[in-house]
C-alpha cells in the first residue's frame, strides 16, 4: 500500500477535488491524505462559493504530514491563488516527494474560476517546473500557451511547448474534443497518444481530478510512466462508464474497487 497525498480544493458534493482524489486513492488500494487549499460550495449544477485557505495553514498541513509520514506521491489540483502556489512550491521543494503530478485546474465544468486569472503566471513559473507530469485539459493548455487548440496535431504541439516550461513530462487531455477520447503525452523525446472510445454519458463531474489521482497512484509504484498513464486512463474510463445519476446536473463518476466487476456495480446502483 502506497501513501498518496492530494493538495487541492474541497468539493462538498463529493464529485471532484479532494473528495474524488481520496476515493481514487482508496479504490486503487492506497492510503490517502489531503491538504486543503480552498473550500468550495458546489454540486452537480455548479460552484456557488469559494473560500481560500490561508497560506500559513496550507504550509502547516503539508508540514504536519511530511514530518510524520512517508509520502510516495503527491497530486496537486486546485491551488486558487499565487500565494498558495508559492507556498506549495517551496514546501514541496523542501520535502522532495518522489512523484509530483500537477493538474493545473483553472475553471470548473460549469465555468467558475477555480484559479484566480492573475495566478496563471505563478502556476507556470513555480509549479510547472517541479512536476513529474503536468496534466492540462485543452482549455487549460490554451490558457497556458495563449492560443487555440482544436486538433490532435495541435495537442501534440501544445504538449511539446508546455514541456519547454520545465515539467519532466506533459499529458494534454482530449476530453474536450469530439470523437475518441485521445490524450497526448510528451516526455521530452517521444509523443505517445493514448486513446479510448468516447463514452456518451453525461455524468462526468471530476474526470480530470480522477485521472491525475490515478496517475499519481500508479506512479507511486510503477516506474514506467506510459504504463502508469494507460492504467489510469483505463480506471477513469470505467469510472465514467459507471457514472452515477446523482443530483440534477452533471453527476459524479463511480469509484469502484477494482476487484468488484462493473456489472455488479451497475446492478447495485
Ligand atoms: N466522454 C468521455 N469518454 C471517455 N473518456 C473521456 C470522456 N471525457 C473525458 N474523458 C477522458 O477523461 C480524462 C480526463 O479528461 P478531461 O479532458 O475530461 O479532463 P478535465 O477537463 O480536466 O476534467 P474536469 O472537467 O473534471 O476538470 C481524459 O483521459 C479524457 O480523455
Ligand atoms: C475543488 C475542485 N477541484 C477541481 C474541480 C475540477 O473542475 C472542481 N470542480 N472542484
Automatic annotation (TrEMBL):
Question: What's the Enzyme Commission number for this chain?
Answer: 2.7.1.49, 2.7.4.7
Q: What is this protein called?
A: Hydroxymethylpyrimidine/phosphomethylpyrimidine kinase
Q: Note the PANTHER family from the entry.
A: HYDROXYMETHYLPYRIMIDINE_PHOSPHOMETHYLPYRIMIDINE KINASE THI20-RELATED, PHOSPHOMETHYLPYRIMIDINE KINASE
Q: Which reaction does it catalyse?
A: 4-amino-5-hydroxymethyl-2-methylpyrimidine + ATP = 4-amino-2-methyl-5-(phosphooxymethyl)pyrimidine + ADP + H(+); 4-amino-2-methyl-5-(phosphooxymethyl)pyrimidine + ATP = 4-amino-2-methyl-5-(diphosphooxymethyl)pyrimidine + ADP
**Organism of this sequence:** Natronincola peptidivorans
Q: Which GO terms describe its molecular function?
A: ATP binding; hydroxymethylpyrimidine kinase activity; phosphomethylpyrimidine kinase activity
Q: In which pathway does it act?
A: Cofactor biosynthesis; thiamine diphosphate biosynthesis; 4-amino-2-methyl-5-diphosphomethylpyrimidine from 5-amino-1-(5-phospho-D-ribosyl)imidazole: step 2/3; Cofactor biosynthesis; thiamine diphosphate biosynthesis; 4-amino-2-methyl-5-diphosphomethylpyrimidine from 5-amino-1-(5-phospho-D-ribosyl)imidazole: step 3/3
Q: Domain of life here? A: Bacteria
The record's listing under InterPro entries reads:
HMP/HMP-P_kinase_dom, PM/HMP-P_kinase-1, Ribokinase-like
Assigned protein family: Belongs to the ThiD family.
Amino acid at each position: 500500500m502506497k501513501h498518496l497525498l492530494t493538495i487541492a480544493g474541497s468539493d462538498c458534493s463529493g464529485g471532484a477535488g479532494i473528495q474524488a482524489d481520496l476515493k481514487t486513492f482508496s479504490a486503487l488500494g492506497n492510503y490517502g491524505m489531503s491538504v486543503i487549499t480552498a473550500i468550495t460550495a458546489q454540486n452537480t449544477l455548479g460552484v456557488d462559493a469559494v473560500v481560500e485557505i490561508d497560506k500559513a495553514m496550507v504550509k502547516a498541513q503539508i508540514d504536519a504530514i511530511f514530518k510524520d509520514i512517508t509520502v510516495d506521491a503527491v497530486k496537486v489540483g486546485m491551488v486558487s491563488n499565487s500565494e498558495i502556489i508559492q507556498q506549495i512550491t517551496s514546501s514541496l521543494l523542501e520535502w522532495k516527494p518522489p512523484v509530483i503530478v500537477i493538474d493545473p485546474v483553472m475553471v470548473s465544468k460549469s465555468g467558475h474560476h477555480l484559479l484566480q486569472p492573475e495566478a496563471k503566471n505563478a502556476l507556470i513559473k513555480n509549479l510547472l517546473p517541479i512536476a513529474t507530469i503536468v496534466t492540462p485539459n485543452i482549455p487549460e493548455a490554451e490558457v497556458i500557451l495563449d492560443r487555440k487548440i482544436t486538433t490532435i496535431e495541435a495537442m501534440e504541439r501544445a504538449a511539446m511547448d508546455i514541456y519547454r516550461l520545465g515539467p519532466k513530462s506533459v499529458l494534454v487531455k482530449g476530453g474536450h474534443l469530439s470523437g475518441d477520447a485521445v490524450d497526448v503525452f510528451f516526455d521530452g523525446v517521444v509523443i505517445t497518444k493514448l486513446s479510448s472510445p468516447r463514452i456518451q454519458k453525461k455524468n462526468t463531474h471530476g474526470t480530470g481530478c480522477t485521472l491525475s489521482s490515478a496517475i499519481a497512484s500508479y506512479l507511486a509504484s510503477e516506474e514506467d510512466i506510459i504504463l502508469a498513464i494507460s492504467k489510469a486512463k483505463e480506471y477513469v474510463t470505467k469510472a465514467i462508464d459507471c457514472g452515477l445519476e446523482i443530483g440534477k446536473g452533471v453527476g459524479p463518476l463511480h469509484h469502484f474497487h477494482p476487484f468488484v466487476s462493473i456489472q455488479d456495480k451497475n446492478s447495485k446502483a
